[in-house]
Every structure is written in structure tokens, then in C-alpha cells.
biotin--[biotin carboxyl-carrier protein] ligase (Rhizobium aethiopicum), 254 residues
Amino acid sequence: MASDGRRRISLGDIRHEALSETSSTNSECLARARAGDPGNLWVTAERQTGGRGRRGRLWVSERGNLYASLLLIDPAPMERLGSLPLAVAVAVHQAIRSVLPPGGEPLEVKWPNDILIGRKKTCGILVEGEGLPDGRYALIVGIGINVSVMPDNPLYPVTCLRQHASAASPEELFAHLFAAMADVLEIWDQGRGIAEITARWRAIACGVGEKITVNLPDRSISGQFAGIDDNGLLMLDTGAGRIMSIAAGDVFFG
């Protein structure tokens, strides 16, 4: 038990339930949280009928890829939750690295947590949260990884692990993800380990120093990607020495 009364995440008490099909692993986790689940639960599915990405976008979810969501209950004080997506990206990158042969195209993270191989998207991550009636806070980390199927994506070039000589099955990849996530969440330590997480994220970041455009809900802003600050916010150099900090947005290179 942490000093603030919150239970720390450890590998030994993380559960996993594998489903053949569900509407959405994120929705399944949220329903279980509302029903009183204590958290530290992975739900995976071979297929999703209503998978979704950021901003409600459809996430095509046919068999052959990995669809997984992790339910966490009160994983950190609210003021430290902002760094969790970076930790998740580090863990997913570590898991994918484990099943790719050496010497291939660069495996990188596009802010905040898309995983790219050779600048093509192979993984999307959706983090959602909800306050529960009993006062607990449910946070769900949804992860979709293209293992053998590449759904069309009009926003970004896409790829899958099979195109990069990985023979791993979704089940094998999940075993790596299960271990990597437990390891990284322990380092993250309810947000207290943000310095180590940001250092690891920076080491695998894509496009630092390049020109980017960030699409916000109400506008688009272009500038040079100056990296992330110590809280994980994107730093955009818009010129004349002005650095803008951005908490959420879609990043496009070039």
C-alpha cells in the first residue's frame, strides 16, 4: 500500500480474461468497473464489433490482430495521471520490439502514444476514464496492434508486424505486453517515476526537430517539434522563440 493509501500495481495481482468477441474491450472494462471490479484486469478479444479510436473514430477490428484493454482503478492521484499515456507507449514499444527481428525499419513513438514502424502506424492507444458512483476512478487503457491485418486508415500510412518479418501471434504478443506493462507501471509508480518515463519516451520518440502540424479540436498549428516537457506535454516551436505546450492533439509530420 502506498503512503497515500492507494494500492500499487504489481505483476502478481494482474488478471486476464480472453474473449472471442466483444463490442469493445474498453467498453467491457468500463462495464466491469461500474459493476464493482477492483481493477488490474486485462480484457482481450479476438474480434471487436464496435472498436473505436481517439475522438470516436472507428477502429476496424477483424481477427488476426491484438485488441486489449487494461482496467485500472485509482491508479494515481488525478494531478499525476497526465503522464500515464507516455508510460503506456513505452510499454507497448517494448512489447513490439520483443517480437520484431533486429535490423528492420525504425520502431518509434509518435506523440503521445502511436507506435510507428518506418513512419507507418501499427498501433493505436486510447486512454479513457470515468468517475464511479462509489467515489473510485476507473481508467481504461485500450491498445490495438496490427499483427497480421492492416485496416485502411485515411489519416495515416499503416503497416502490420507481419510486413516486418514478425511471426508472433496476437497471443504471443500479448504475453510480452502483459509483462512489459507491469514493468513500466512499476517504474511509473503512480506518476512519481515520470522523470524515468519521459527519459525512456524521448529515447524512442519520432520526429523531434522536424516540422509538424498539430490538429486541435478547433484549429491546426504548425511549427517545429521541440520534444516534450517534464510533464509529457508536446513542445511546439512556432517561431520567434515562442514555445507552445500542447496537452492533446493529432500530430502530422511535414
User: Anything to note?
Assistant: The two ends are 47 Å apart (CA to CA). The first strand starts at residue 15 and ends at 22. The chain has two domains: 11-203, 210-253. The helical segments are 25-34, 84-99, 170-188, 194-203.
